[in-house]
């Protein structure tokens, strides 16, 4: 193996463990989304950085949710979910939906009931409503596979990112 000029040699590899996993993924910048659903006692939602495009035809996406999450009970039984792409101006909204015990749908959050009764957040870059197709066990999480049935891509602004344990924005 030949070293690339100007780049440091890789450090000795670490044994796979949760700390290594977290350390590596803190280095991975990810877009920030909020997933919502209608629950038995009202709307639920959580911040997700695991949103992934799966297929264009049919339009499928996936996201992960911890089974210990306060939103899991509603997501585990929901037929439909909302997926919201947050803008760089929505760091506080992302933090609210990430915070345990927060009143996520109280002021200043602005939302409305959207298609299929899914809570739709105002002011986002884009949103989708999806039909849930599967919940696949994956360690202490479930991967949710969902098909897009509608939405709106017309919000203004630039995307919010999550990197090194904090919300941030793109730089030019």
UniProtKB/TrEMBL annotation:
<dbReference type="Pfam" id="PF01613">
    <property type="entry name" value="Flavin_Reduct"/>
</dbReference>
<dbReference type="GO" id="GO:0010181">
    <property type="term" value="F:FMN binding"/>
</dbReference>
<feature type="domain" description="Flavin reductase like">
    <location>
        <begin position="25"/>
        <end position="169"/>
    </location>
</feature>
<dbReference type="GO" id="GO:0042602">
    <property type="term" value="F:riboflavin reductase (NADPH) activity"/>
</dbReference>
<protein>
    <submittedName>
        <fullName>Flavin-dependent reductase</fullName>
    </submittedName>
</protein>
<dbReference type="InterPro" id="IPR002563">
    <property type="entry name" value="Flavin_Rdtase-like_dom"/>
</dbReference>
<dbReference type="InterPro" id="IPR012349">
    <property type="entry name" value="Split_barrel_FMN-bd"/>
</dbReference>
<dbReference type="GO" id="GO:0006208">
    <property type="term" value="P:pyrimidine nucleobase catabolic process"/>
</dbReference>
<dbReference type="InterPro" id="IPR050268">
    <property type="entry name" value="NADH-dep_flavin_reductase"/>
</dbReference>
<keyword id="KW-0560">Oxidoreductase</keyword>
């Amino acid at each position: 193996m030949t070293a690339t000029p100007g780049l440091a040699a890789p450090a000795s590899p670490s044994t796979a463990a949760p700390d290594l996993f977290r350390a590596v993924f803190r280095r991975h910048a990810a877009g920030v989304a909020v997933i919502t659903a209608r629950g038995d006692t009202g709307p639920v939602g959580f911040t997700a950085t695991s949103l992934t495009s799966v297929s264009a035809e049919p339009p499928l996406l996936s996201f992960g949710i911890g089974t210990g999450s306060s939103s899991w009970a509603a997501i585990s039984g929901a037929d439909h979910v909302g997926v919201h792409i947050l803008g760089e101006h929505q760091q506080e909204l992302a933090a609210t939906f990430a915070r345990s015990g927060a009143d996520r749908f109280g002021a200043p959050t602005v939302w409305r009931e959207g298609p299929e009764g899914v809570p739709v957040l105002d002011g986002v870059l884009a949103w989708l409503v999806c039909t849930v197709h599967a919940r696949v066990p994956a360690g202490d999480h479930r991967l949710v596979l969902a098909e897009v049935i509608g939405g709106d891509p017309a919000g203004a602004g630039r995307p919010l990112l999550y990197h090194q344990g904090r919300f941030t924005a793109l730089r030019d």
